[in-house]
Amino acid sequence: PIVASFHIRLHKHRIDRALPKMRKAARMVVEDAESFDLIVLGAGPVGVGAALAAAESGRSVCLVDAPEYSGALMDGDGMDLSLGGPTGLFSKALRDTSKRISVSTLRGMGISENSIWSEVCLVCQQLARINALDRSRTLQSVGVTRFTGFARFLPFDVESGTDVAGGRETNLEVVSADGEPAPIRAKNVLVATGSSAFRPKSIPFDEMRVLDSDSVNGLKFLPRSIAITGSGIIAIEYAKIFQRLGADVTLLIRDRVPKNALQKIGLDTDVAATLVSDLVRSGIRIERGVQAVNFEVPGSPTSKVGAGSKEVVRLDESFISNRQPIRITLEPAVQKGKKFGAEKRKVQEKVVSVDAYLAAVGRTPNTEGLGLGTIGVDCDEFGGVIVDSNQETSVPGIYGAGDVVGRPFLASTGVAQGAKAVKHMFSDDEEKRNMVDKSFDLAKDPFAFPVGVWTSPESAYYGLTIKQAQDRGYDGAEGLALYRECLRGCVFSPDGLLKLVFDKTTGVILGVHIVGDDACELIHYGMELVRGGRTMTDVTGNMYSAVTFHELYQIAARAGLDPQAARQRRREAGASWASLSKARRSAPPTSS
User: Fold this and answer.
1) Where are the alpha helices (DSSP H) in 38-149?
2) What is the C-alpha separation between 514 and 534, in angstroms, rounded?
3) Which residues make up the CATH 3.30.390.30 domain(s) of the chain?
4) Are 530 and 449 in contact (CB under 8 A)?
5) CATH 3.50.50.60 in the chain, residues?
6) Locate the FAD/NAD(P)-binding domain: which residues (predicted)?
7) Strand runs (DSSP E) across 457-547, as ranges?
8) pTM (2 d.p.)
9) Domain spanning 457-585 has what CATH number?
10) pLDDT of 23 strictly over 50
11) Given this model, what pLDDT does residue 301 score?
């Protein structure tokens, strides 16, 4: 898998040495191990951010990351282009690229699909290279020591002087790609090893045509058709990306109502409905209430180019010109409390034929092989590291941050967790006592972070939905602004909307929900409104630059305070917009 591109790759074998032998190894390591103030496991945005924060404060830091084997994110010089990049780096780069090129136009000009895809991947690689070079130079400039290899904890031993609980250090071993072990130790260790795509055992992943949300980064051809299983952020993002790249996209969703599936990831009802409508309108086929149960995957002819670190596996030209489709059998997904008889299931089975398949059905924390159990670090049922309000584990001095601690699996929250961990580990006892924060569970706190969904159009939210507000005892109400109600929206994103959720009693804004162009940028102003306890009246009284999307905040606030006037204005605007759209459709083409 390509997960090592973004986070440290873990041991694939379990520790099978007897505990006494490991303790003996720990005693031997102590004498030769290089000592640091902090060891960070994982060189994604969380690990790199934490390493920089500690190093810039004068601490000695060691950053450990695993070698990149797949070649998908290696440049011609063997440089790992994933350094410091989030798991979603490829999808974001691919999304922006898909907005800037027209595959259908290039095909019409006779340009081969191989050439088109090579150019797309080159652009993505260049973006990754810029980020990796910047991170590498910054780490070097502040004196961060870097190791490449597989890391594991060695067990504590009182005689060896490695018991952190007693004020001593933690020993680790880093095994390089050639099998050479290197001992290191520190009083503080941050586990930021990220997550990997969940792989159902029923799916025959081959990392060529049957892919997960990690291995899709190494896709070696431009599919003409693709089926995607999932209804979360990653699945929706890739559905829109491949649609814009000219592929026929089929989205396979277990839920019978796609809008309900999107609401489960936190989206507002109207935002979810708008996204589903856009998916359908753009030509994406949605198979509802189904699951993939059988795959027929023809062989994919490949060839190897280059050698060593520069070796790349490519699909042969014969496949590109005469590809055999993957046949996927679908059957009704079993819903909670319901079962389908064999006869009914057989009748409802269907088969889809596609060039490629992507499973985007969740992620799991990367902890296997680290040896956390040997030092007493507690993990949850999914393997995620259990941490307290300061990101510290059950073992003092060992911290966790980012995807490795579980939901919400966002780079932004992980970076914040890493910064919090670094601040805590280098504070004195009195400062630590004052840092206790009971609202540390980001996954359950809607006020902890904004969420951006990089679909096209974008969607984003922060704070409460109206249902959540009412469930918490607020007299909840909404103010809605349609993008077409402002001039900029009329031109760029007429189908978008911005919604403010507020308490009618106090007027305080409780949540912001957006779908449309620049939603992932606009949400930060909304976040400040909520965090600052601003009211709807405050927003109506502000002055906003003309012809900007920020005018939507004022329109939504006015609509919430005077819904009857807003409905009348919207009816009038709707009639005008319908007339304008009809005139545009019926207008004759202009002559050149």
Assistant:
1) 45-56, 89-100, 103-108, 113-141
2) 18
3) 457-585
4) no
5) 3-86+140-196+364-442, 210-361
6) 36-418
7) 459-463, 476-482, 497-503, 509-515
8) 0.80
9) 3.30.390.30
10) no
11) 58
